[in-house]
Design brief:
alpha/beta; about 325 residues; elongated; 6-stranded parallel sheet; binds alpha-L-arabinofuranose
């Protein structure tokens, strides 16, 4: 008899589990499933970007987000995209680490009928139909903003020694910001890039390469401008320059930075960063509006750029700082 009761208990339990699962399925079916491949967590900008996505793509808002952190490896992004295709997600969202090497995997997503939204950096495709939309920044325009500030700040008849710290090589943010600087150097004969280093968009690497460079100089070079391709690089560069006794700010070594995170704006207010070029990481709402439009059967603009500004010391008001969530 006891055995029979035990068997009955197991059967009832199994029935509960089955009906429980059945209850869950229709609920899940209502959610829009997003497979998202994030580059990594290299910078404060990136952390804010991830946070913006997570805040929007919640179950309460009607989404199931499958988030993958690629830890700075493109292979990890490709593997994640293949998994999203197998899982038949509704949309694939990718923040690509590099511009190159996406054609094959995006073709697979296209063949599976899954729209792909590229966010932040761009991908270089011969077949543009593989990408439903690109939502992000115009990195060349950001660089132009920096070089036009340099043209105003420094008289054209003085020599300018520039140290250039690049971001992750092959990423659109690096390519656009670098191209703008190189184009300006071509048209300003007195501008000299005295060293170019790869800071990989991180504070630690930039501190290391800048420190190594200065330590290797028998005589410390006069540096007028350090063109850092993001804020974290600027923080690392400023630390290294400080350790070698450089006078940072107007009249000394002027630091240019991209992103305009709160910490960089604070540095700008103190005069440690002369120019902050904005790059907006809060792209979650824009991605959501694109997905909503696609859900409604609308045609979306394939290229959508966000508006961004440039800030110098006098622009840094308390109101601006208070409004910066990242
Ligand atoms: O692609 C955007 C860039 O990548 C941001 O400037 C930088 O901080 C990030 O790591």
């Amino acid at each position: 008899m006891r055995k029979l009761i035990a068997i009955l208990e197991v059967l009832v339990l199994m029935l509960f589990m089955i009906t429980g699962c059945m209850d869950q399925d229709p609920q899940d079916d209502d959610l829009i499933v997003i497979g998202m491949s994030q580059t990594g967590a290299e910078s404060d900008w990136r952390a804010a970007n991830t946070e913006s996505m997570r805040a929007v793509f919640t179950e309460e808002n009607g989404y199931r987000l499958i988030f993958d952190d690629a830890r700075q490896q493109q292979e990890n992004q490709i593997t994640a995209i293949r998994r999203f295709i197998q899982e038949q997600v509704d949309y694939i969202v990718v923040m690509p680490i590099s511009e190159y090497g996406w054609e094959a995997v995006l073709e697979e997503a296209y063949d599976a009928g899954i729209p792909v939204i590229i966010v932040d950096r761009m991908v270089d495709l011969t077949n543009e139909r593989l990408m439903t939309a690109h939502l992000g920044a115009d990195f060349y325009a950001e660089g132009e903003c920096a070089v036009s500030w340099m043209e105003q700040e420094f008289s054209s008849n003085r020599n300018l020694n520039i140290v250039h710290i690049q971001g992750t090589l092959g990423s659109s943010a690096q390519i656009g910001r670098t191209e703008a600087l190189l184009d300006a150097v071509m048209s300003n004969p007195r501008w000299n890039i005295i060293n170019t280093m790869d800071g990989d968009f991180t504070q630690a690497k930039t501190y290391e390469v800048m420190h190594e460079y200065l330590a290797s100089c028998t005589v410390l070079p006069a540096i007028d401008v350090v063109y850092c391709e993001n804020d974290n690089e600027a923080f690392g560069a400023i630390r290294a320059l400080g350790e070698f006794g450089y006078d940072i700010g107007v009249g000394g070594t002027e630091v240019i930075s991209f992103d305009a995170t709160r910490q960089a704006l604070l540095y700008c207010r103190e005069g440690k960063i002369s120019l902050c070029v904005e790059c907006n990481p809060l792209l979650g709402p824009l991605v959501e509006s694109c997905i909503i439009a696609l859900e409604n059967g609308e045609v979306v603009d394939q290229y959508q750029y966000v508006e961004e500004g440039c800030f110098v010391t006098n622009d840094i008001t308390q109101e601006l700082l208070d409004s910066r969530s990242y």
